[in-house]
Amino acid sequence: MIEVKHLTKRYGHFLALEDVSFQIGEGEIVGLLGPNGAGKSTVMNILTGCLSASEGEVRVAGVDVREHPTEAKKSVGYLPEQPPLYPDMTVGEYLRFVYDLKQVDLPREPHLKEICELVKLGDVEHRLIGHLSKGYRQRVGIAAALIGDPKLVIFDEPTVGLDPKQIIEVRHLLRTLAKRHTVLLSTHILAEAKAVCQRVLILNHGQLIADEATDALARKVEENTHFQYSIIGPEKDVVKLLRGVSGVKDVISTGERDGEAWVYALSGVAGQDCRKAVYYALAKQGYPIIAAGAVGADLESIFIRLVDNATSKQ
Amino acid sequence: MKAIFKRELYAYFTTPIGYAYLVFYFVLSGCVFAYTTLFAMSADVSAYFSLMQLVLTVLLPLLTMKLLSEERRQKTEQVWLTAPVPVTHVVLGKFLAAYVLFGTSLVLSSLSFLILTRYAEVKIAVLFGNLLAMLLLGGVFLAVGLFVSALTENQLAAAVGTVGILLGFLALSFVSQLVNVYWLRFILDGLSVYTRFRNFTQGVFDVMAMVYYLSLSGLFLFLTVRVYDRRRYL
To answer: Do A97 and B7 touch (CB under 8 A)?
Structure first.
């Protein structure tokens, strides 16, 4: 669906994208990740034909974006970070405007009705866009992107500024969309990519530093071996006991208290999950675990590691 | 193009701009009409249109100032930049929306002369010549306004810039009469849009001037599209 080969974009002397190549197949839902200023929006603007690449080739649905921009745009629905809505129009007027603008062949009213139901726009059709909440505006933006049933939909930071309930709804919607469309979404929130995407592309300083299945990234999380436990029992005995458990590399007491319990930092041997063994060993001795968690085991830390590695290589 | 045209024409009446323009236009054109005909005890069509040039110089930038600048500021232009329509169609749609509002108001205000025919002899041919020329000249003003609007994010800057350029054109027509250097005069004459109007006010139907107005409008619309092309390749 998307083919990007050796894409480079310069703004004057500033290199916004450097030799970026990737492919996205039909029906995939892919996250484009990176810190602010990494080049995510530039990639999206090039894919949607708003910007022209300095070098390289970009094809959307088999059409070269530079040579046949109008043709390529027919296959793309785009929701920019700030939905391009006219506050003086009502929702219905705006959606009909976008429908006319895109010169869609599908029958108008049933098509718009179907989209409104899909994005749960409810009965706001006659309300002015300027009077809508941020969450509803985002839905109107998504609805507009879906008009014409484009094969590819691109969302730039679709959940920014929404409340937690709305975020969950939008993520759910994105997953629903993936059944019918190829979806590319940019985000700097890793949990979002994890919740929604099958695959992630990570950009940093205009370079593609990772192109991995989300599962593979998650596995890296699971391989993480640092844990924190709060355990009730004599401090020294617990440390001694834990050091003897198979799969445990080291244990230290942090010296912090968690109610009655002491807090311990535990590191395990890579590739070996020691958590079960730790539980049984403590249970046997009658030392209850009152809290436990992985430390630095989230996607954020992997992301930072990747970005740091890439930066230090440079 | 049709979608943009409809949207912009509609937007004139969902925001105060359309109303402000119409109120100012009809008040000013009424004053000009009264001043040049009723008070002057004359049925001279040309005096009215000569003064209306100045009125439109100041009023037409109102219609174009926000057409592109506001879209850039609010980032709403993304909706048509990413839609499968060429920018040329968008620019033409916006131009036509402004043009229809301007043209309608001009034609309506010119109807005053029809009332005058009951009391005095109005030269209908001259009226139509002037009206046609004014419709073409207005097209140039709107095209210049649209071009300036594409250059900035600020509506006010767009309006002031457009008035500035149009007054610059007016100044050129005075300056060119003072210049004796042939080539310089040639260039200045080429830019003096107001000078070409004079033939119409004298009852001459100047085809060359019409072609000139159409080309100049076309040139500025083309430049407007180029602003977007340039931004794409930036």
So the answer is: yes
In chain B, how many domains are there? 1
Predicted-complex ipTM score: 0.90
Q: What whole-number distance in Å separates Cα of residue B225 and Cα of residue A308?
A: 43
Provide the residue range defining the domain that includes B38: 2-233
B contacts of A73 (beta carbons < 8 Å): 82-84
Q: In terms of CA atoms, which chain A residue is nearest residue B90?
A: A101
CB neighbourhood size of A21 (10 A): 13
The structure's pTM equals 0.84
Residue among B78, B84, B232 minimizing CB distance to A84: B78
Give the domains, in start order, of chain A with CATH numbers. 2-220 (3.40.50.300), 225-295 (3.30.70.1340)
- Residues within 8 A of B (CB atoms), A 159-218 only: none
pLDDT digits (tens, 9 = 90+) for A71-102: 999 999 999 989 999 999 999 999 999 999 99
Are the C-beta atoms of residues B89 and A103 closer than 8 Å to each other?
no
Phi, then psi, of A219 in degrees rounded to 5: -65, -35
Is A73's CB within 8 Å of B82's CB?
yes
Main-chain dihedrals φ then ψ at residue A228, nearest 5 degrees: -130, 130
User: Per the CB < 8 Å rule, is A50 touching B11?
Assistant: no
Which residue type does A170 have? V
